[in-house]
Amino acid sequence: MTGLTVFDDIALRLRNLTTEQLDASKGDPGALPGAFKIRLAKSRGFQKGAGTLVERRYADRGYQIPGQSEDPNLFTFVAYDEGKLVGTVSIRLDSENGLSADSLYRGEIDDLRNAGCKVCEFTRLAVDVKAVSKPVLAGLFHTAYLYASEVRGFNFAVIEVNPRHVAFYSKALGFEPIGPERMNTRVQAPAVLLCVPFENIAGALRKYAGDPEAPAKSRSLFPYGFPQDEESGILKRLLELEVVRAGAKPSGQRTR
Questions:
Q1: Domain ranges of the chain
Q2: Which CATH number is associated with domain 5-246?
Q3: From start to end of 128-224, where are the E strands?
Q4: Is the CB of residue 99 less than 8 Å from the CB of residue 158?
Q5: 251/152: higher pLDDT
């Protein structure tokens, strides 16, 4: 309906729906039972919703809420489950303005740049812990990865996390620490810089995504990522949105 939907689980939702359920949706497929939708938060309404979720989750953890200014290199994705906003993550692409993580870890990130890495950062991750599921969280990261890697041609990601969360990101997505613990004054909390090459993410998705027995083999989020046929459709949609956004053929597309 918005033209900004990246993934929409229509086939699953429409299976076995009653006439009453279809009528209750009032024409909005995102409100149907079982709906799982990922959108690019381009409009003010979606951006405001994502910002509100970030603020609520930061406040719950006792963090200072970081300021947010207009940034043409920041792209936000939001996930809805049965019409409810349950998660958001943003990707900031490196540019002449740098990354937010440069304020604490400029030396470490410059080492990556000098080694030829095209670096982006995952930032402003927030999920509704009472509603989010592993497929929703995996879908958010998978979509953000596809946009940064396959559409925009970046090959390395960094993320600043609280030291308590290092183990989660390591197990769930293969991030590894490359910077010592430092105080992040933007949120008034300690931080550690983690990184992951996108080729590692691509390899893990090829190995685990779409395999029904994969959760027993890996404790990561990769088994809950999109299988190859769905990934291809999502990438096609991201490329279409990029053409609209940039008014030109997107650069950096690669075939795996």
A1: 5-246
A2: 3.40.630.30
A3: 156-161, 176-177, 182-184, 189-197
A4: yes
A5: 152
- d(C-alpha 256, C-alpha 147), whole Å: 14
209 secondary structure, DSSP code: T
* pLDDT tens digit sequence for 60-72: 666 666 656 678 9
Q: With a cut of 60, say whether residue 124 has pLDDT above it.
A: yes
pTM of the model as a whole? 0.80
pLDDT of residue 108: 98
Indicate the SS3 state at residue 126: strand
Take residue 248 and report the two structure tokens written for it: 């030109």
d(CA 198, CA 111): 17
Q: What is the largest CA-CA distance in the chain?
A: 60
Tokens of 156: 């390395």
Contacts of 215 (CB under 8 A, 6+ apart): 223, 224
69 Cβ contact list (under 8 Å, min separation 6): none
